[in-house]
């Protein structure tokens, strides 16, 4: 018998955990900083609600409708066809994503350990140098990568209900609470108003075609859509749960956390004279600066880092789950064995990304380090590509009556709501993805 979520709230929190991780807390602030602030945030919200939310509902419908993991779901819903490539695309994309995602998870583990021993917030500390030291030391970076994957594998090996769901129910609410505490302190710094203006006041003159693509990719990255992760998660779901309500809950929680991340980060950035365009290291320079100004700052920093780490773990769980379930659905291997072997392969694949700030800093792929090239490939090519394939599958191939049934279970939404979702998926989503992508390439 397949494992199942024990409750609707467990599914929603676990799905939110899959979405709310590096996308909302780490990547969103620095992408916003590099792409003009408030205008990027507004585009991100629009893409999340208009494109991301319908796509999330789509993945939920496919997963629960098939009651199978990603690859098998498309095989069942479209037998003897090539549509199963969407599932394989998701498994491959999750693998690449996890290989560099785990590198950042390793950074957070190192920061957490250092903070526990009181080695982050120190007198006259230079947080830019600290970040450069952690990411630039090959042994530290690879050790962090390995430790992050070891913990992730251990949790996922326990399964859906006893592993992923139990952990998500405890840690996700705590993350919200600590984020709100951080925001309250952040907006009271002298000079915080300038940071708030940067984040909340749109200036569309700063938006480029590439920035629009990044905003679209960020909405996919932050909601974990495009790689069939949510197809796999929803396959463990009962028929009494409303998929549109669950998708809306996850989307709004994700926007809210992104808002909190911006409110926590940018007031501090401008208060301390940091550069909002600082890139991937922005969060690691800002958080210690903020907590250093609080009573018991090191304690609060440690707690926040541990909760942030868990948010990263919950996203990693989803990526490992899609890889694991794809293998166990085809081979009669034990779940634990598959998870551990997958984790080892991801660790090996992640080493080049871990060395992108040290031994492989001068090695470039299309002008980018291995880490940045992997990020660009996943966020701006593979995720939009996966979402486009998903939209085409819904519009062309999937059984209409099954779609309507899955959309309607557990709620009393009108048939007009279903038609609106279907037409958005059939026309608006694919057209938008193609236009944004071609525009970024300068074709249109």
UniProtKB/TrEMBL annotation:
PROSITE patterns: NA_NEUROTRAN_SYMP_1, NA_NEUROTRAN_SYMP_3
Keyword Thylakoid: no
Transmembrane region(s): 9-28, 40-62, 85-118, 138-160, 172-192, 212-233, 245-274, 294-317, 338-356, 376-396, 417-438
Keyword terms, alphabetized: Membrane, Symport, Transmembrane, Transmembrane helix, Transport
Keyword Phosphoprotein recorded: no
CDD domains assigned: SLC6sbd_Tyt1-Like
Membrane topology qualifier: Multi-pass membrane protein
Localisation per UniProt entry: Membrane
Gene Ontology cellular component terms for the protein in this record: membrane
UniProt-listed Pfam families: SNF
Example of a GO MF term: symporter activity
Main localization of the protein described in the UniProt heading: membrane
Superkingdom of origin: Bacteria
PANTHER family in the cross-refs: TRANSPORTER (PTHR42948:SF1)
Family: Belongs to the sodium:neurotransmitter symporter (SNF) (TC 2.A.22) family.
Protein known as: Transporter
